[in-house]
Amino acid sequence: MGPLDGVRVIELSHELCAWAGKLMADLGADVIVVEPPGGSRQRTFGPFLGDVAGPERSLWWWQYNTSKRGVVLDHTDIGDRERLASLVESADVLLAAEPIERDGWASNNDGLVTVSILAPDNATDLTLLSEGGPIYMCGYDDHTLPPVRGGGNQAFHTACHWATIATLVALLERQQSGVGQHVDVSALAAANVTTEVGTYGYLAAGMIPQRQTGRHASPVPSQPTQLLCSDGRYVNAGLLARRGAEYQATIDWLTELGLHEEFELMAFLEMGTEYTVITAADIERDPIILEIASAAREAQAFVASRIPAAEYFVSAQQHGLTAGVIYAPDEVLDDPHFLARGWPTLVEHPELGTSYIYPGQPYRLTGTPWQIRHRAPLLGEHQAILG
Question: In what order do the strands lie in the sheet with 324-325?
Answer without folding.
Answer: 226-228, 234-236, 324-325
